[in-house]
Every structure is written in structure tokens, then in C-alpha cells.
Amino acid sequence: MQLASARCHAVVGIIKNFAFFGFVVVFIVLFSESVEAMMPGPVADLTSTHKSLIRFGIVLPIFCCLAMLTNLSQLARWGWVGIVSVIIECGGIMFGGVDAYLRVKACDSVEELSCRRYAWVPESAPVESGGKGAAVFLFTLAVIGAVPNLRSQLAEPKEMPRVLYISFSIVTACNVIVMYIGYMGFGQYAPDNAIVGLKLSAPWVSFFASVAIGVNVLFSTPLYTFSMFTQFEESGNDILRTPLSLPNIALRIGLVTLMTIISAVVPYLTDVIGLVSAIFVGCLNIFFPLYFFYMSLTRTQRSIHSALLSARFLGHVAVFTIGVYVLIFGFLGSYNSLMAKISAAGDQEFTARLPAQNTTSLMASMLLWV
Hints:
The protein is 76% helix and 0% strand. By secondary structure, the chain is mostly helical. It has one domain (2-105, 122-369): Amino acid/polyamine transporter I. The longest helix has 39 residues, at 306-344.
């Protein structure tokens, strides 16, 4: 039993760190796009050289500095700044959505791209597109994997369940409101990153929202880099695992550099979020909690609470079904969308380096790996 528990703990740790690695890659992409949106002129006019300078000359040094944080209390005193940035970010998207709704005419023509058009379901691959959307939504609740480390940083750790309940409720409400108003304004032609899409119609709104997103990312990233490096450093006491020793600093900088390179190779924000969320967040937020919950129940607890467990079990089955849907169709939707964008961009060299397999075989390989 202890051996199985140790193996399970090791598997969870590996998957959690892969997930956090993917989260930071997403944050680097998002921060890079926010900086690009602050630049004068349309984002489409930026050359690959300009984007590389932004990513490696501005974003990389900032994220390397964030990776040096060894105590989240260093960041907690400025938490109000992160909250204000979220308010500005969401407010900017909602203002831009309302502005677009009032200015852009409505239409029913698929060919007319300069209008606002709606559809009840995604018009292309609705099942996969729905899975991708669900995966992106789930990503906003991806902090579950960092809860043990965050709990240890709380002044009153016993308050963590209440903190999670309130924060998840706020995030879900904000997601629904922002998505509704954003879709109301842009319709079927909503851009992957609404802030970038707002730059043409409302440049000042886009600028301030981009700044707010950048600040929000700066406060979010240490939650995951801190958890990754803390788990690694707790596994031994050699010089490499001594916080902020020279080899440790080199490791931190090297890992952030690798993340930045990956973000430059695959810079498509929504699809990267969908892939990371479908593979990892479903495990951390749905499958592992359900597994640990039922493994922790003794026979006595199951018999005493059988009626309650029966009602709760139905809810757990629904949650598990959603997790499977996100895992399969969120992955396929994100992967197919990513390949379509790479193909449309004419990056034949990148495509040629990919394994020659279809999405079905790739999905099968991924499931076997997980």
C-alpha cells in the first residue's frame, strides 16, 4: 500500500510539474502578445524579428526574474495590484465588446467578414470546438495543482477550502460575463485574443487592457514557478537543489529560456491553452481529486454516508464525464486548430518536423502516455 502510494505521489508530481511548465509557456505567450499590443501600429505589421526581440529581449529577462522568487509572501503584499489589473482587464474586454456591438452591423452572410454574425453552435467541427472551448474555460481554474504550496503560505491554512470556494465562484462568474459580452460584440469573428482584436477598433482600451494583462501574468506566474522549483529543491540537499545557489540560478534561467523558446515555436495562444488544459488540467482538477476522494474513504465511512455518497456519486459521474470530454475533444480540437494555423502560416519546415501521424494515432499515443 505504501509502495503504491509512493508511486501515485510520484506520478502526480510529474504530471503536475509538466502542467506547470505548460502554464508558464502559456503565460509567456500571453505576456508577449500583450507587449506586442502595446506597440504602435497594427500587430500584424510586426515582423518576426520584432516579435523575437520582444520575446527574448523583454519577456525572457522579466520571467527569469520572476523565477527567482523563493517566498510568495514577497509578492503577497502587492496582491491588490493584481486584483486591480484583473478588474481593468475584464472591464476593457467588456467595454470593447459593447463598443463593437454598437458599431458593427449584424448580418447572416458567411462571406461578409466586416459584420457581426452569431451561431448557436460552432460552425466547424462543433464537438471538437466545444471541447476546445471547455478546455480553455477549465484552464482558468488550473490553480488546484498549486494548492498544497499555496496553503503552506497562508497565515491560516485551514481557510484554504473557503478561499478556493470564493475564488472559483468569482472566476466562473467573470468568465461567463466576459465571454458573453465578448461574443456579443464580435460574434463568430471573435479573435483568439480579444485584447489584440480590440487594437484596431479601440486602441486605447486595448493598450490599458494589455498593461493589465501583463501585470496579472506577472502575479500569476510565480504561483507555478515557485511550486515547480520548491518540489525539486525538497527532493535533495545538494548544491543544485539549494535555493539561489549559482547552479540553481542557472537551472532556473535555463528552464525559463526553454519555455520561451517553446512559446516562440508555437505562439498560438488559444490552441496552446487548449492542449495544456486538455492533457494536464483535467487530471489535476478532475481525475486526481475524484480518485483520491474515493481512495480516502474507509468501509465504515462508505456505509455510514451511503445515501450522501449516492447523491454525490451522480455529481461525480457528471464531472468525470466532462473531464473525459475535455481530455479527448479538447485535445483534438486544439491540435487540429493548431495544425490548421501552422499550415495557413506556410510554416512548411515546422510541419515537416512533426511526426507523420494523424490525430487519431496521436491521441492514442497521448492516452497511453498519460
